[in-house]
């Protein structure tokens, strides 16, 4: 379907003469030129085959008797060539015996004319072959279209990933129609749409469009019918945006609605360099079939996206503390065990910080639990920002937090703990009038005497935290080694 009407017309006018007789060449060229055909000439079979491969004529007038590679040899090699379309071969020969005719037709010739040549007969036979060629091209085109549609629907059914489904559609359609741009636009409101996929850039997703600047899309939404603009710049529909689309000179646009229950959910949007002849009926019908199929793909993809987001949300609930958005107690123990085993295996250091808010009950009693929750969230955010990306921060429980520090020696962990303590102390908390928020912190590190597993490391850090509490709070203490 990539060959448009102009290309077909040009190809249909191309006739190659393969004949070593210059007189016959002159006669044939005179007849063909007077009937509007473009010709090329080859004086022998080898030259003729080279010309066929490059020029790709629709009809070949072939002499049988030539020096070197004769007509039968040309036919046999020609029919084994991989060409975009099959050329018709009319043998034009002095030989009129049955053996020559049968041998020619058996070797791949489509017709046989005996010299001397009759102009009306030659022109009639060429036209007959062109009609047959067009018939075969139509069949080949329909076959390609069907194969592409099957490939699209097969690919769509093979995956439910939204971006993959949409990118499959636009890339396949662009390949068939030779579009310079093929996009799927989701219609959200009368003047709002989103480019969900474009074959030019697979990374483009959810690109917002102001549909007031796209009268062609709004027209399709209104009519629910495909719209082909063969000359974008000069089409009356585009008069209001003509200055904005100056770069679309010599371009054609095709917009096909994606409709369900009489509602336009989106459009298939194609732009191509075809101003003179526009989109063919077959291209429009092909895009309509794809658009109709796209609805089901979009619906399934959206359903999959929704389910995926719900699963991610449920997974997050299972791992995260809902108040602070930090990892929860269970995830903390799971990750600490992983990091501890890794530290033992590779003989790398591992540190743990346990942090507890001082006098937090007093905050709740004085200002209420809502303010207390604000304090917890703010401290959680500060701790999260205050550590490295590789550190794991969790809400251990109540007003207590934990930080796992992979590949960190005790001194580094103590420095980080002290920095966190200062950040919390210096922060102004929303809702508090005079109370100062401080934290007590305990630090432990592996390798440490007696630390045989992750549970031991937690116990050491917890003991250090207990020491900090008994040392007057608002301080950092280290587990005894």
- CATH fold-type name of the largest domain: Alpha-Beta Plaits
> What is the string of SSEs from the N terminus onward?
HEHEHEHEHEHHEEEHEEEHHEHHEEHEHE
Structural class, please?
alpha/beta
Biggest sheet features: 6 strands, antiparallel
Helix content: 40-55%
CATH class of the largest domain: Alpha Beta
**Number of distinct helices:** 14
Instruction: Tell me the number of strands.
Output: 16
Percent strand equals 15-25%
Assigned CATH architecture of the largest domain: 2-Layer Sandwich
Q: At the fourth CATH level, what is the homologous superfamily of the largest domain?
A: Reverse transcriptase/Diguanylate cyclase domain
What's the helix and strand layout?
Blueprint: H1 5-12, E1 14-18, H2 22-34, E2 38-42, H3 45-55, E3 59-62, H4 71-78, E4 88-93, H5 98-106, E5 111-114, H6 119-158, H7 162-177, E6 181-189, E7 192-198, E8 207-210, H8 215-223, E9 227-229, E10 252-260, E11 263-272, H9 281-319, H10 329-346, E12 350-357, H11 360-367, H12 369-386, E13 392-397, E14 400-406, H13 410-426, E15 439-446, H14 454-470, E16 476-478
Helix pairs in contact: 3-4, 6-7, 6-9, 7-9, 11-12, 12-13
